[in-house]
Amino acid sequence: MRRAAVLLLLLSSALAALGVAAPMAGAANGPLAAVTVTGAAAAKPTVTFHAPFTVKKTTNQVVTAGSGAALAKGQTITFDYVLVDGRTGKELETSYGNTPGSLTLDSSKTATQLVTSLTGKTVGSRLLVAIAPKDGLAKRLNNPAVKKTDTLLFVIDVKNVRKPLARATGAAVAPVAGLPTVSLAANGKPTITVPAGAAAPTQLVTQVLIKGAGPAVTAGQTITVHYASVKWDGKPFDSTWDRGQPIDTPIGTGTVIPGWDEGLVGQTVGSQVLLVVPPAKGYGTSGSSDGKVKGTDTLVFVVDILDAY
After folding, report:
1. Is 13 domain-assigned?
2. Residue-number span of the structural domain to which 122 is assigned
3. Per residue in 142-173, pLDDT tens?
């Protein structure tokens, strides 16, 4: 659970490009011939063009072809990226120097234009994508500096293909008596029941419910998780299961609430972990910025750790 709901809406995967990126090959007769991408593969690229730049139809071009396997629909990839506004020439976002993005090549989860552009490309490639205004991605960014009529330019370095679990899997662990109880639906979605009349713990409680057989999560990694949560009064608070897909978030870096950093670092991939988070380990005395969590709220999370990278 992040302190501020800052999630990459459209991006989420990265592939480390191989070699040195050069001006694009085979684009001389296309609209992307006006855009030059330069820079070493492992470094942040430089995108050069005369603004304003626009396309009527979303198009893509391989800047440098990678030597890895071809990407297929349904796969989850990690990538580094730079996002530039074609109208102004200004950079809007980048993952370089930060956490790589991650996305699933599935149009129900990721912008169709990115899925189409990336499918069939190879791991290790550097790709330039120009997304036309008519496809609505500029509007969906909800950035006041971006107009809905702007063309968006992505440079994407595809790093690798990941295979996150769909749900926690491993050996069941008997929880300590007196904690909130958890029941699972057929698809793995948890339902949390807080014991009636019980006093909220004043210290962080971490209880493994399922012990996964994967590697241990280390501080500084990004984890893929499904989670459900309620307040200590039993009222649901937030759930990735209800939103239909897991999230990726850095862990052990202060990006999420302290209860997550302390309770999830060291757990193994595949595990399901119950966290009871007092205010001091959650959003503090001021509560959450959106007002949904008060400064006195104790929160209960059930977190499935699906991957770590």
Report:
1. no
2. 20-162
3. 899 999 999 999 999 999 999 999 999 999 99
Statement to judge: residues 149 and 249 lie in one domain: no
147 and 195 co-located in one domain: no
Res 18 pLDDT > 60: no
Q: Which residues pair with 226 in a beta bridge?
A: 304
Instruction: Enumerate the β-bridge partners of residue 300.
Output: 230, 276
Q: What is the structure's pLDDT at 1? A: 62
Contacts of 122 (CB under 8 A, 6+ apart): 65, 66, 67, 68, 69, 70, 71, 158
Residue 14's pLDDT is: 28
Whose CA is closest to 135, among 56, 226, 50, 220?
56
Judgement on whether residues 24 and 156 belong to the same structural domain of the protein: yes
Q: Phi then psi for 110, rounded to 5 degrees?
A: -135, 150
Query: How many domains does the structure of the chain reveal?
Result: 2
Q: Are residues 249 and 290 in the same domain?
A: yes
Count how many Cα atoms sit within 13 Å of the Cα of residue 209 in the half-sphere of its side chain.
23
| 183-207 tens-digit pLDDT | 999 999 999 999 999 999 999 999 9
9 in a structural domain: no
Q: Please give the model's pTM, rounded to 2 decimal places.
A: 0.74
Whole-number Å distance between alpha carbons of 49 and 135: 22
Residues 91, 132 within the same domain: yes
CATH of the domain at 103: 3.10.50.40
Q: How many CB atoms lie within 10 A of CB 309?
A: 17
Q: Which pLDDT value is given to residue 29?
A: 52
